[in-house]
Amino acid sequence: MTRRPRRSTAALAGAVALGVALTGCSTSDDLARQYTEGGNKGYIAGDGSVTEIPVEERGDPVVFDGTVEDGSTVSSADYAGEVLVVNFWYASCAPCRAEAPDLKDISEQFAGDGASFLGVNVRDQAASAIAFNESYSIGYPSVMDVDDGGMQLAFSGNIPPNAVPTTLVLDGSGRVAARILGQVSAPSILETLIEDTIAEDG
Asked: Cα–Cα distance between 201 and 151 in angstroms, integer?
């Protein structure tokens, strides 16, 4: 597959401005307020902020393993040397449903071209995840994380996915390079984050 021309990171400047302060500029107050106010949404929404982490400031590689919806297993070793996009979601989450078509399209765009996608379902059983994937024609697998929370734990020491959905971009060494907290509402931003992370390796 032919690589499309890379977008300039300057195009991200406005969108990234709110999130570029890394974890020190967290949304914990907003999340606490949403929890206190309730509203029976069933999820705590992120604010859509984008965080990019310079190469020299990234933490250790994230090591994980889990069981996906079809019963097979997956681990960080399966994605060694390539960019991995990890999306935390569950089926009844409204912003997860809203972003699903975009994630599908972007995952297909980068398939075989330097980046893979992996979902992490934080609430459902396998049957619900399979039904969701069929409904939105999602082709990449999701780890079923509801029972032991192993995936959430694996990522908690880096940039904790403190809202659902959260999308993380891991570099070729398995380190978190970028995060979108909340719905992927601008697909071009995620595309650029992936392209820039792929480009780091040459």
From this structure: 26
